[in-house]
Specification:
Blueprint: E1 2-14, E2 17-29, H1 36-68, H2 98-103, H3 110-122, H4 127-138, H5 149-167
């Protein structure tokens, strides 16, 4: 067993106030120390997991901040006579997939997709087999690159729980 400690931190500044976020993960990885590629892959997976977790904390904080800003009085609006007649901006369809255009969900982050692909590789799942598992988990056929953040999180949670159970001998 090899013991690994991974740490990340971010600092956000808003209106001359700053807020720090950090995460430290410590894990034992069951790979042969002589297999450098396997060690690097497992450490990268831990960094990806740390990054995703840190990003979720930041998003939660920012959503709390957004809710708190609802108490702030709204800025005055432009009188109707002076409003410009520009067409409304088109909604950003995310990564361009039909699913994201229809559901309106934000596309999964590159880190989520990379972590999912690394996890599938570790579980000996080819891309078609991974997509079949995604279909079983989400109840619909979705290409791994068309997942939303929410869906990717659900799939990752499900697969990491199964992988953890497998490695613990459950």
């Amino acid at each position: 067993m090899l013991k690994v400690n991974v740490g990340l931190s971010r600092k956000l500044t808003h209106d001359y106030n700053s807020r720090g976020f950090s995460i430290n993960l410590e894990a034992e990885i069951g790979v042969d120390r002589n297999d450098a590629e396997a060690v690097i892959d497992r450490i990268q997976e831990l960094y990806d997991l740390s990054e995703e977790s840190l990003q979720r904390q930041i998003e939660r904080y920012e959503s709390d901040l957004a809710i708190a800003s609802h108490d702030v009085p709204a800025a005055p609006t432009i009188p109707p006579a002076k409003q410009e007649t520009t067409p409304p901006a088109k909604a950003n369809p995310g990564n361009g997939s039909p699913r994201n255009r229809i559901s309106g969900g934000e596309p999964a982050t590159n880190k989520q997709i990379q972590f999912l692909l690394n996890l599938a590789k570790r579980m000996n799942l080819s891309k078609p087999k991974l997509e079949k598992r995604i279909q079983q988990i989400l109840g619909e056929s979705i290409d791994v690159y068309d997942l939303t953040k929410r869906d990717a999180g659900i799939v990752l949670d499900t697969l990491t729980d199964k992988q953890e159970a497998k490695s613990n001998g459950r």
